[in-house]
Amino acid sequence: MTEKELQLQKKREVQQSGEPTKPQKQFIPAVDIFETDDLVNIVAEMPGVDKKDVSIGLEEGILTISGSMHGEIVENENPLLKEYETGNYLRRFSMSEDIDQEKIEASMSSGILTVRLPKATRAKPRKIEVKGE
Amino acid sequence: MALIRFLDKPFYRNPWSQLERMRQEMDRLNRNSNNDFATYPSSSAYPAMNITEDANNVYVRAEIPGLPANEPELFVEGDTLTIKGERKPGAVDEKGSYHRREIEYGRFSRAITLPTQINTEKVKAASKNGILTVTLPKAEEVKPKKIAVEIK
């Protein structure tokens, strides 16, 4: 069996409607979204973002994940090769499920953000048994 | 024989001078746009790297999110630096389903040739927020040395 070789994904920039005031770039983080009966799990790739610089908001069914990166300190260093750019991350999702806002949990570990969004009780699927006569 | 640069020869003896002038012109253009250092997205090797240098060190930074700090394997051999590792997906709950799978997982290995000789004994690596930074001290022989001009 041949093991899968990792492919490089190019960072995609956020298409903004307005003009940004800061010259920083904004990227769309790659995500995995996993759903079970009880929760929606979102894993986002945000290398270089510290856990204190992440913000997650859920407003009117729109989940916003953003992370700001303060850039790499490259003072007095000469660039020799530049393959990735640094900037902020931003992504929005419209949630189709009702989410229990109080119980949203998020964790960050080595550049990977994991957000656990528990479904509100009324959004959980309930099987209704049909009784016969 | 006196050393004369090829370009300094008179025009009639150097049929390539026009090409050479064009090349110099291109170099000049490149130099002028240097403050906005261009990125090269053409390389598709994983991980993406930024390499910088100062007088004493060469710095290699690689974006490897999701890899625990102790996991990437680093090898230095002469002037070649190799980074190896594996990104493993998180625990998968059998009962659920994926809506999106954009993050890539798998093994990677990348070797790069360093621009100068380095002191292999003193290479250091640190990982923070998914960015691996390798500090490679330059070998003493290649460090810039200031030569004092004697006044006579």
Key traits:
heterodimer, A: 133 residues, mainly beta, Immunoglobulin-like, five-stranded mixed sheet, four-stranded antiparallel sheet, 10 strands, 40% strand, elongated, B: 152 residues, three-stranded antiparallel sheet, 1 helix
What does this molecule look like?
- The complex is a heterodimer of chains A (about 130) and B (about 150).
- Chain A is built from no helices and ten strands.
- Chain A has a domain of about 80 residues: Immunoglobulin-like (Sandwich), CATH 2.60.40.790.
- In chain A, the strands form two sheets. Chain A has a five-stranded mixed β-sheet with strand order 1-2-8-6-5, with no helix packed on it.
- With about 130 residues, chain A is mainly beta.
- The mean pLDDT of chain A is about 85.
- The N and C termini of chain A lie far apart (about 55 Å).
- Chain B has about 150 residues and is mainly beta.
- The two termini of chain B are about 30 Å apart.
- Chain B has a domain of about 80 residues: Sandwich (Immunoglobulin-like).
- Chain B is built from one helix and eight strands; from the N terminus they run H-E-E-E-E-E-E-E-E.
- The radius of gyration of chain B is 23 Å and the shape is flat.
- The mean pLDDT of chain B is about 80.
- Helices cover about 10% and strands about 35% of the residues of chain B.
- A four-stranded antiparallel β-sheet of chain B has the order 1-2-8-7, with no helix packed on it.
- The interface between A and B is large, with 41 and 51 residues.
Contiguous low-pLDDT stretches of chain A (5 residues minimum) are none
Largest interface, counted with CB-CB under 8 A? A-B, 41 and 51 residues
From the alpha carbons, calculate the radius of gyration of chain B and give it in angstroms. Answer: 23 Å
Kindly state the mean pLDDT of chain B as a whole number?
A: 81
Q: What sort of overall outline of chain B do the alpha carbons produce when their principal axes are compared?
A: flat
Summarize the amount of helix of chain B as a percent range: 10-25%
Total number of helices of chain B: 1
From the spread of the alpha carbons, the general shape of chain A counts as elongated
Number of helices of chain A: 0
* Overall pLDDT of chain A: 83
Helix- and strand-based class of chain B?
mainly beta
CATH topology category name of the domain at 47-89 and 103-141 in chain B: Immunoglobulin-like
As for the CATH topology of the domain at 27-70 and 85-123 in chain A, it is Immunoglobulin-like
